[in-house]
Amino acid sequence: MRHIILAAITLITCAASLRAEAPAGYYAPLDGLSRPEELKTAVCKVINPHTTPAANNYSTYYSDLSRMFRQTDVYPDDPGRWWEMYSNMVFRTPSFSGLNREHSFPKSWWGGLTNIPPYVDLNHLYPSEAVANQRKSNYPLGEVTTSEAVYFDNGVTKVGYAVGGQGGGAKYVFEPADEYKGDFARTYFYMVTCYQDLKWATNYMYMLQQNTYPTLKPWAYEMLLEWSRNDPVSQKEIDRNEVVYSLQNNRNPFIDMPGLEEYIWGDRKGETFHINSSQQPPKGDPQLFSPVDGMALDFGQVAVGSSEVRRLLFLGEDLTGKVSVVVSRDGDTDSRRMFKVGSSSIDTKLINAAGGYYLEVTFSPTETGSHRANITVFDVTGWGAGSLNVKLIGEALDRPALSRITALPATDVTADSYVARWEVPANDVIDYYIVNRTHYVDGAMTIDRLEAEENFLLISDYDPAAYDSYTVQSVRLGFESAPSEPIVVALGGVQGVDAGQPLAVKVVDATVRFICAAPQSSARIFDITGRLHTFLPVIERNMEITLPAGVYFIVTDSHLTPVKILIR
Hints:
Layout (H helix, E strand, L loop, with lengths): L11 E2 L2 E2 L18 H12 L4 E2 L4 H6 L1 H8 L1 E2 L2 E5 L16 E5 L12 H4 L5 E5 H7 L15 E2 L4 E3 L12 E3 L2 H17 L23 H13 L4 H14 L4 H4 L3 H5 L22 E4 L5 E8 L4 E10 L4 E7 L10 E3 L3 E3 H5 L4 E7 L5 E10 L9 E10 L9 E5 L6 E5 L9 E10 L2 E9 L3 E4 L8 E9 L2 E2 L6 E2 L14 E6 L2 E6 L3 E8 L4 E8 L4 E3 L3 E7 L2 E9 L1
Parallel strand pairs: 12-19
Antiparallel strand pairs: 1-2, 3-13, 4-5, 6-7, 8-9, 9-10, 11-13, 13-17, 14-16, 14-18, 15-17, 18-19, 20-21, 21-24, 22-23, 22-25, 25-26, 25-27, 28-29, 29-32, 30-31, 30-33, 33-34
Helix pairs in contact: 6-7
């Protein structure tokens, strides 16, 4: 039996690098499996549970990603420089200006905020140069053909038409630089394994199948296997894997065990998989895989008077009795009263169970400043280390006062895209923006919440024949500003619209009377947040309806410019 305290940075000496390892027994359930679907599911069960924010605290966690990236994505010989894989530009820390928090495995493929664990999973979140990220959009990975004009190429990232046999029907594919293709391949192997039970969005199935195996389409896994072979695991990935493990308590096995992917999708399917003997402790030997001694549960910046919740994973094997948990002071600092654990005693049956046990830890600051404490875990019966400490870190700030954003008309409107824009409030400190986009997908109205780091956002699936609008909010410390007035997007130069089919509205009290020369179809009445309030298949001259008090915008198929009305 052994207990490994994992370092955040793996030492590099002369010509040889020291590979870090997972704790003994971490991958033991994979040993001896030969059927690829069983092996993939076994990997899922090992890596799927991990430390996450509580569902209602994702916003603050997302805001804090740039600070986590300072541990995971900087050059080891130049910690003041971001290591981003989307451009050859130089960005200096701690500023995050010009960068995005990028879901390399697009969040639209699984519904984004409908599933918090993948939404905040650092194993596929990377800093990305903003323009490259927006051009990448939610296109699949692939190789860009040079026989046609390339949509975007900054010397590192390419976006364009796929070579034959790739793309899965997508308009474009995203191709990273050769030196990072293996990184992205192993990221995708991780995501389709860790979250193999997710329901994928039907309109983004370019690389995916709706099953637990193989999950990837043949063209996709064959390309990713080739990328992984040609670009083996790098020291960058090894180091990053260790830091991510210290932050969220799970690992990317395709980095730890290069070649595992071949047993699942590649040339070694059907062969028996064996892990390194050092990873197999004696049978029945108690193991605590998570949490890790010395790891930090970082709550980031939190407003005084509010609370932030983290879910700390406890995962083990063959433990007995109960594990005790207490909040203890950290050196000379005593902020214990601001941190609270959901339970002081955990039955090891819960820790040994598949998926482990999540302990809720709450940070509720009562005064501004930096606050620290520890969680001390002890009474771990039979486990050699006996006890461990998890650092608790949080910074408390005054509650923000956010100005209402002024949204601007969309620019660069084409037959399939546009750029949403808005003004930057002069005196506000902002973590990021939310663009609330209202549009139609397969005839049904859909409202998307899209994040943006800068004061613009490229929308790449615009349909001029359908209604499309957006409002904008700013976010700071998890608080959101009031939404802006909605902006309706219309493609210029459309003939026979608005001028040829004028629409006027007369309002008397709560009654709305339509004034139009001829009947107009598909009248949509939106409230001030951009949500559809009323749909009328046809409106005719002098037709009347009643509406509750509020501000509304009316458009029809032949009158795309919104008519604003006020009901008092």
